[in-house]
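for the writeup, i need someone to sanity check this before i put it in the appendix. the sequnce is what the collaborator sent (i think, or maybe the updated version? ugh). structure was predicted straight from it, no edits. if anything looks off just tell me and ill rerun, i have time this weekend
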Amino acid sequence: MTLNITGDTAADRLLSDDPLALLIGMLLDQQVAMETAFAGPLKIRERIGTLDPGAIAAYDPDAFAEAFKRPPAVHRFPGSMAARVQALCAAVEQDWGGDASAIWTTPAAGHSGTPDGAEVLKRLKSLPGFGDQKAKIFLALLGKQYGYDGAGWREASAPYGEEGSYRSVADIVSPESLAKVREYKRGVKAAAKSGGGGV
């Protein structure tokens, strides 16, 4: 399983191999290009030497923000997004034993096996920086490309889990699909501007 989101082989390999990198990339995916957001985890690792959630959570906040600011910047809002990444890593460390994948692999209380889509969505929405839409997109990404097969994930992540759609990063598997997702997002923005609503 190799993701193809950023167009950068090393960045995509990190996203494919490290669940925390993927989670951080999703957190960063706002007000910057998707490729920039998902290339962020590699920049962070290169600049501070680790993607260990405990180490990031404990990192000096000013030094961490400085690492975000170094050109090319990790995000256009380096200070606030650095703080969000540290809060996210603290939650992963404290609530999930430092294992981001536990969010979608640990059985629900009193159950065995993979947690269902509704449970994983609830867990994602409890993370710092993950609202309803971001949580649904990430759940769709897990189901479509990351091997997660919990019951009802398509329904829980609707409309992003819909098969054959090009709505979000969950649907990007190639330069062609990236272009289709961009086109969809442009259409949504245009509709919102003209008062026609959007998704």
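The chain has a mean pLDDT of 95. The chain has eleven helices and no strands.
thx in advance!!
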